[in-house]
Design goal:
The structure holds two protein chains of two kinds. Chain A is built from four helices and no strands. Chain A is an all-alpha fold. Chain B is mainly alpha-helical. Chain B has four helices and no strands. The chains are: A mainly alpha, B mainly alpha. At the A-B interface, helix 1, helix 2, helix 3 and helix 4 of A face helix 1, helix 2, helix 3 and helix 4 of B.
């Protein structure tokens, strides 16, 4: 299909998405961030494999502001993507589509992601 | 004859890897939180232990495959220009497969040589 220059009516700039819609796009954004984070993850593994010097350099990056941002950002994205992903699997079984369930599950997944995130940090050795 | 191709296979494999990633991501997330506090000896021993290495490899293989499928879906949704879309899909696969190979080799190196 050829690209067209025809204007489209505004959507995201004018309509406020319902909660489930916001969670949906967040799930996608989290997914992309997780995929990108895997690159950093691999870089870390490579640093470990290359020995103490490489790892120490990587470790000091992970202690920097950006390093911490990436690490904990990725961690939260992981738990959020995980919780919303569970909802997708529930949906695949054709459950949870009525309005009450939608709202309950939405709150549940947000709370679960935060709880998992905090738990992981607290349990870290 | 019904063949699983394109969309259906994509959807199914996405679910399969997702289910595998349920326990693996939890394990990975909780393990990762400890990384900033580890020194080289500790982390090398951790990665080098056979059980952790196995779980790590399982996580990475599932995650990379899951990522390929996910990023492909994103590209298909947002890139309208056919050439760029096709290239993007190929590049995604190439990048993640390469990363997969590199990370698995790194892990094996630590397990076998230290």
């Amino acid at each position: 299909m050829a690209e067209s220059n025809r204007p489209i009516s505004p959507h995201l700039q004018v309509y406020r998405l319902p909660l489930t819609g916001v969670l949906s796009i967040s799930h996608r954004i989290a997914g992309v961030l997780l995929a990108l984070g895997l690159l950093v993850f691999c870089y870390g593994l490579l640093a470990i494999a290359q020995g103490e010097e490489s790892f120490t350099a990587f470790q000091s990056f992970s202690h920097s502001f950006f390093g911490q941002l990436i690490l904990y950002g990725w961690l939260f994205a992981l738990f959020y993507h995980f919780c919303h992903g569970i909802r997708h699997i529930i949906w695949d079984f054709a459950k949870g589509f009525d309005q009450d369930m939608m709202d309950h599950l939405a709150i549940l997944e947000i709370v679960s992601s935060i709880v998992l995130f905090i738990l992981a940090i607290l349990l870290a050795r | 004859m019904i063949t699983e191709s394109g969309g259906l296979q994509h959807w199914w494999h996405q679910r399969l890897t997702a289910v595998a990633l349920i326990p693996l991501s939890l394990w990975m997330g909780f393990s990762l939180a400890s990384v900033p506090n580890a020194n080289y000896a500790e982390i090398s021993a951790w990665v080098g232990s056979p059980l952790n290495a196995l779980l790590l490899i399982a996580f990475l293989v599932s995650a990379f495959y899951h990522s390929i499928l996910g990023i492909q879906a994103v590209i298909e949704d947002y890139v309208q220009t056919e050439d760029i879309r096709a290239q993007g899909l190929v590049v995604t696969k190439v990048v993640f497969i390469l990363l997969g190979v590199v990370s698995v080799l790194s892990i094996l190196k630590v397990v076998m040589i230290g």
